[in-house]
Amino acid sequence: MPIELLMPALSPTMTEGKLAKWSKKEGDKVKAGDVIAEIETDKATMEFEAVDEGTLGKILVPEGAENIAVNQPIAILLEEGEDKSALANAPKSPMAKKAEAPAAKADVKPAVPAPVTAPTPSKPAAYSVPPPQAGEGAKASPPPPRSGGGLGGDSSRIFVSPLARRLAEQAKLDLHSVTGTGPHGRIVQHDVETALKGGGAKRVAAPSAPFTPPAAGGGPLSKAAVYALAGNTPFTEISMTGMRRTVAKRMVESKTTVPHFYLTIDCDIDPLMRVRTELADAASTKLSVNDFVIKAAALALRKIPRANASYSDDAILLWSEVNIAVAVALDDGLITPIIKNADTKRLPEISAEMKDLGLRARAGKLKLTEFQGGTFSISNLGMYGIKDFAAVINPPHGCILAIGAGEQRPVVKNGQIVVGTVMGCTLACDHRVVDGAVGAQYLAEFKKIIEHPSVLLI
Questions:
Q1: Which domains does the chain have, with CATH numbers?
Q2: Does 89 have pLDDT greater than 60?
Q3: Active-site annotation holds for 452
Q4: H helix or E strand, kind and range, residue 438
Q5: Which residue from 196, 198, 203 is spatially nearest to 170, judged by alpha carbons?
Q6: Strands (DSSP E) along 131-283, which ranges?
Q7: Which of the pair, 71 or 208, is modelled with greater confidence?
Q8: Which residues lie across from 412 on neighbouring strands?
Q9: pLDDT surpassing 80 at residue 423
Q10: Under DSSP, is residue 428 helix (H, G, I), strand (E, B) or coil?
Q11: DSSP secondary structure code for residue 393 in this structure
Q12: Cα distance between residue 81 and residue 58, in whole Å
């Protein structure tokens, strides 16, 4: 009997995905463990492996298809001894179902509209207009649409600023002959002046959606709204990937629901740099500063376990393992591969594992278990020359440690001003689970470890 291959749920938050690439074609033999396709989830592009053997009989979803819901059939696998005749009762492609949906809706009789109640004379009907242009008076508002009269005939279809209308009236200019360059085609002062000089106002086409000012306190922003707020500036559109949408959503949720506070400390890393150079010269072991940071952060969590915690409405969860999630930048977002049990691993092991995870993260080859989870985050922008910064917590983690560049600064050692290499470190804490004293204790422990790197070699 033919086997339906369904769109897999490759992450806990995935509800739909994009079929980025087919690794097999119709008629190909498939073995358990073979990579059949590459699926773009809300987190990353991941490989979809077969769990059954057979022949790929029919592909239901083409490459590049987006918004394919989880558990929708994407292909049919024929078992041994079956041929294409077994596909007679195969399910339809999800793409075909979407195409049929509008036709089905067309057969439905329209509902009888509810009676419309006209507005009373004392309360004129509400109307919506774009905001006034800069320099034309923030308090001025265009009059409500009129059913007739005015300049050049029916003006109810014209959006015009008060100043532009006044100039047109004085010059007896027909506004129907003027092209507006303001938001949603609104005629502004510049358009009237250009028309009076005999020129035509050049207009950049706006998105077709009507302008809707964003709600107070934030909320969804349409392209039309952003376009208008930016003053109709020409733009190039970059499509939102599933990963970028997820990053945007999670960061907004974090900053609006997690009470952040920040603690910063400077660390003297001259001893670390010496040890790093000695290891490279004596044992040809090339370690990055970030490798030392990961190990030091993990050991500090063992000393201050209250920082290795997450908040829930029922209880604070103190994690038994130290699993460090390290931010890795990608072209369309970022991902956080995890060094599990980092406190128990030696520096060369952490270095090799981090290199492997970083390469596979950029290639979209990470497994779900390699980037989902973790108990504590690290974000390092030191390689870009950033002195210090405050990172956004990645829920449900209780903290994220932001690492800046090691730079030479004047420091006091043994009562003398000397040049030292100093690295700025900022800890962002979820105040629901990590108090100021706990955060300070953690940073003090981290500083002690990172400034005495011999501890990290044990």
A1: 3-103 (2.40.50.100), 245-457 (3.30.559.10)
A2: yes
A3: no
A4: helix 436-450
A5: 196
A6: 260-268
A7: 71
A8: 417
A9: yes
A10: strand
A11: P
A12: 16
Residue 198 has a pLDDT of 72
Query: Are 39 and 21 contacting, i.e. CB atoms less than 8 angstroms apart?
Result: no
Residue carrying structure tokens 């919506």: 128
Q: Per this entry, what is the length of the chain?
A: 458
Q: Which of 184, 190, 431, 452 is catalytic?
A: 431
DSSP assignments along 203-219, one per residue? -PPPPSSPP-PPPTT--
Query: Rounded CA gap, 183 and 213, in Å?
Result: 11
* Structure-token match 């990645």, residue found: 394
Mean pLDDT of 284-293: 92
| DSSP track, 287-338 | --HHHHHHHHHHHHHHHSGGGSEEE-SS-EEE-SS--EEE-EEETTEEE--E
Give pLDDT tens digits for 122-177: 433 333 334 444 444 434 444 444 333 333 344 345 778 877 887 888 787 888 87
Taking alpha carbons only, the member of 84, 75, 70 closest to residue 9 is 70
Amino acid at 349: E
Q: Sign of the C-alpha dihedral, residues 155, 158, 161, 167?
A: negative
Looking at the chain, the whole-number percentage of residues with pLDDT higher than 70 is 79
